[in-house]
Amino acid sequence: MKFVVDTWSLAPGDNRNDMRNLMKKLKFLKIKIREWNFGHISSSRVEMKHLQEELNRLDTEIESGKGMDVIISKRMEVINSMHNINKTYAIESLQKVKIKWSVEGDENSHFFHGILNKRRKQISIRGVMKDGIWLDKPDQVKEEFLNHFRDRFARPIENHVSFDMEFPNSLSRAQQEELESDVTHEEIKRAVWDCGVDKSPGPNGFTFGFYRQFWDLVEKDVISAVNYFFKHGEFSSGCNSSFNALIPKIPNANMVKDFRPISLIGSLYKIITNVLDNRLVPVLSVIVHEVQSEFVSGRKIMDGPF
């Protein structure tokens, strides 16, 4: 924890843009954590090797009849140290595999890595079928996906349908003012806490578990970044990057249409959308007709009039 606090205080920011300021600090922290993690993993492996050698030596002494209390106590200390290192490895594997597993239970690295390798194999794209021809060259596969989704998500040429009618339900002036009022610190904190702790991180690599644990440290920068968005109405360049991934809809997908794209958006985007969502929820029941069963909390399809 001290490492994160010290690194954050040294992180270079951007005094002219609160949103870029947060992104730069997160990027700096990410780089430093990677450097620390690389050295920590290397030292942990060396330490584990030494602990295993020490454990073997102590077991040999105990088996030879030299099992004094001090040796037995030392053996327990070595086992606890090894358990702590294994526990760290288990947490890292858990984050990669993204499954629910009790960290306090026995680590099964073969299980973790087996699940991880299976998921990688399932989502890997080795080629696609086009007009009965199998394409497996990376450039051809990329071009097929690009053309397919570019055509599908292109802006339509024809005009959208418009409705010339009056809607019976509308918000009161007080409700409109409340929706457009300044975002409070409590709203932003609630938006952070509404997000899952161990959800897949965005490009910056930080989950909301990080924001919760170090909220006192990052609170000021996060709030300033969110307020910057509501003041200017847009994300600054480079602050809304996302990872696009193709997920197979069916097993053994081999055609472009068998995949669907998803975007792994960043934490700042999720916070802002949660703030907007929390503001809209209380007023949706006012403007959404009673026969509509979607988008209103507490309504079910069986509640309709038909």
From TrEMBL:
Nucleotidyltransferase as UniProt keyword: yes
Highest taxon above the source species: Eukaryota
Cross-referenced InterPro entries: Retrotransposon-Effector_Assoc
Coiled coil segments of this chain: 41-68
One annotated GO molecular function: RNA-directed DNA polymerase activity
Keywords from the named record: Coiled coil, Nucleotidyltransferase, RNA-directed DNA polymerase, Transferase
Transmembrane regions: none
PANTHER family xref list: NON-LTR RETROLELEMENT REVERSE TRANSCRIPTASE-LIKE PROTEIN-RELATED, RNA-DIRECTED DNA POLYMERASE, EUKARYOTA, REVERSE TRANSCRIPTASE ZINC-BINDING DOMAIN PROTEIN-RELATED
Name listed for the protein in its UniProt record: RNA-directed DNA polymerase, eukaryota
